[in-house]
Amino acid sequence: MLPVVPVSDFLFYHTHAVTIANGEGYVTNGQPTAFWPVGQSAFLGLLYRIFGADPLVGRLSGVVLGGVEAFAAHRVAFALTRSRRAANLALLLYVLHPAWILRTAILASENTLIPLLLVGALAQWHQGTTRASRTGSLLLSGLAYGAAVLIKPQFLFVPVVLALAGRPDPRPWRKRWARGLALLAFIAVIAAPWSIRNSLHFGRFVGLSTNGGVTLFAGNNRQATGTSTLTPEYEAIALHTPQWNEVERDEHARTAALKWIAHNPGPWLFLAPFKMWHMFARDEETLYHMTRGLPDMSPSVSRAYFTLHYTNWAGWLAFLACFLLAALLTLWRIRNQRPSADPVGLAVFACTCGFYLIFHGQPRYHAPLEAWMAPYVAWLLLEWMGPDTATLSSTPPAPTAAT
């Protein structure tokens, strides 16, 4: 309910949602654009069309979707740990995270993206007892993933990873892979109209956005630090080239980035830990953008902000440390054929990190991973409390002689 004004990326989502709601389309300065994927702006535009173009509408939608996200995060945690206690503790750790709570204030795309990914995963795992229920879960999974890809295309790997993984989906690999291929085909059908629109406008094939090369160049150039770095060369290509359209700027930026990587493999590899540092070492972006959007901060609000900032940061670092320990313990137990949490969440974590190792890191990028990290943290904490605290089997214990 704070009077937060959208800034930065979130201002982009808001202003383009307004043009969509007004019937002008997805345009910048009156010209059709595909610089960012359309998903978040389209979702907000639909809400603005129905309820009015007020950022409060978007924030309230984030609250509603937060409930979906919390429920789905709990079910994912149970699927990964096969423990109701671990799932409950994971949910508690997740929903009490201050950055997660305050994310609704800034119209973040993660408010829409994360519940879609989690619902897609749950529907993909759902086996169903009838053909109708299996078909319904496939359609729900495809719709959720398709909408998520229209927000952030890089997360297309999630259904692929889950299709290749064994647990928590016990179906034979042929059925899992067939379902995965069906999901990818359904996602392609959902994304195709947007790609066709872009290709028709720009006169050449365009996928879901025209900023992949620009983003790649922002993290891989002679002055790169591991996060998005705006060098004079970057600005010359991406910002001050009126003779080029979005696709041409993107292609020039991609060419410049790949050329720099090819000629500087050592410095590029040297950037890898810095990219991960920028992605995980801090957890302040939500608070930062929220307070940037406030008109003024009174001394009392300022003190509360700094208290919340450092409390949130300390909690995040403790959470991250526990997750890394839990990941190592999980892999060690699997190697030694001992009961452990399901490693598929670690695969999702690793693939996400691999993507941003290619591009660059920002604190906001780890938000979609928190729901996949919390189950391992909860499992580790329960393991420390005693081996009987967390039950990793969904089957009831065998009856004893006394029973």
Structural notes for this entry:
It is a single chain. The protein has one domain. Strands 1-2 form a two-stranded antiparallel ribbon. It is mostly helical and 403 residues long. It starts with 7 loop residues before the first helix and ends in an 18-residue tail after the last helix. It has helices at 8-21, 39-51, 55-81, 84-95, 98-102, 110-125, 131-149, 157-164, 173-202, 212-219, 232-238, 246-263, 265-270, 272-280, 285-292, 299-335, 344-358, 370-385, and strands at 27-28, 31-32. 67% of the residues lie in helices and 1% in strands. The protein is built from 18 helices and two strands. Strand 1 and strand 2 form a beta hairpin.
Distance between the termini: 56 Å
* Largest β-sheet summary: 2 strands, antiparallel
- What is the helix fraction of residues, given as a range? 55-70%
Quick one: overall form? globular
Topology:
Blueprint (H helix, E strand, L loop, with lengths): L7 H14 L5 E2 L2 E2 L6 H13 L3 H27 L2 H12 L2 H5 L7 H16 L5 H19 L7 H8 L8 H30 L9 H8 L12 H7 L7 H18 L1 H6 L1 H9 L4 H8 L6 H37 L8 H15 L11 H16 L18
Antiparallel strand pairs: 1-2
Helix pairs in contact: 1-2, 3-4, 3-6, 3-18, 4-18, 6-7, 6-8, 7-9, 8-9, 8-17, 10-12, 14-17, 16-18
